[in-house]
Amino acid sequence: MRHAVIMAGGTGTRLWPLSRKSTPKQFQKLIGERTLLQQTYDRIRGIIDPEQVWVVTGEQYKELVIEQLPEILAAHIITEPVGRNTAPATALATLSILKEDPEAVLFGLLPADHYVGKPKVFAEATKAVFSFIEQHPEYVVTIGVRPTEPNTGLGYIKMGDKLESIQKRAIFHVESFHEKPNQITAEEFVTSGEYLWNGGYYLFNGAKMIEYYEQLAPEILRTVGEYIEDPTVELYNSVSSEPIDKAISEKLSNLAVIPVEMDWSDIGNWATLHEILSEQGKSTEVVIGDSISDKTSNTLVMGGSKLIVTVGVKDIVVIDTDDVILICEKGSVQDVKKIVEQLQEQGREHLL
């Protein structure tokens, strides 16, 4: 059968102070009336039966997942005692699913914190990839996003030779991965037309993926396998913390990519969220909550219980919660994570 694994274990520190350890961004209603986790499920439920949808999350978030996704089986909520990045999480999910379905084909890495403005395009591409993998089980396939700008905050995938067309969509061999580039390199990537944003999506045959772990990341596979039989925090904490890109995919010769244009964002920081909301509202001044402004532009104001007034400001983010007010220049939103680190060092865990 076809299965989908929603990865919902991150803490979203760049969206602090709204995103906290108790309720990270994937459980928040940042865009629309559904949380990011629920929107991720909505995108996949027309392709995968609810009985074949799985979620990997932290132990502390299991009840939140049950509350927000009552349609899926509680037994299909896989919990990690500690986060160890996507390579261990994917191994844990794949081994768990193969116990139930030895012939499983997986959308094995579906992040819960992305925005997709064109869900039908996403669904069409996903169906095409499933069909491709069922015909070519040796391939691992990623969904690459056609870049709309020279973004320096994202990784890139260079497309190689075309492998074939399936359901009117071309699938290409992956020639190489590239880390977050500088501005000049990003501009060159976009101009060439040969590069895609790396969205972190992976689809594969479950049994073949385990073979790749045996070849390329045997220690991760061994430790995760032992953890499934003896689920202790100490054992899982001992597994190497690696992204699946580094541990598996970048080392594969039979890795493919399908390019899509689906109005995509990873919602990695406040500036990204502002961009999405401003496009939806057709205004650079985005206000959520009680606010009054004058001569204010290119701002995101997210209010809580009190009135927020802005006068003569631009290019800023104002986030008001019960115990914290964040005021940040839009160009510095990546540095919010540094504030979270400072709070950790100061022992102010109640603010995290």
Entry summary:
This protein has 352 residues and is of the alpha/beta class.
What is the number of helical segments per DSSP (H or I, 4+ residues)?
11
Sheet bearing the most strands, described?
5 strands, mixed
What is the CATH architecture descriptor of the largest domain? Alpha-Beta Complex
Q: Compute the gyration radius: what is it?
A: 21 Å
CATH superfamily grouping of the largest domain: Spore Coat Polysaccharide Biosynthesis Protein SpsA, Chain A
| SSE topology string | EHEHEHEEHEEEHEEHHHHEEHEEEEEEH
Order of the strands making up the biggest sheet: 3-2-1-4-10
Percent of residues in helices:
25-40%
Structural class: alpha/beta
Principal-axes geometry comes out as globular
Low-confidence stretches: none
- What is the CATH T-level topology of the largest domain? Spore Coat Polysaccharide Biosynthesis Protein SpsA, Chain A
Report the mean per-residue pLDDT as an integer: 95
Strand segment tally: 18
Count of the domains: 2
Question: What's the level 1 CATH class of the largest domain?
Answer: Alpha Beta
Report the sheet-strand fraction. Answer: 25-35%
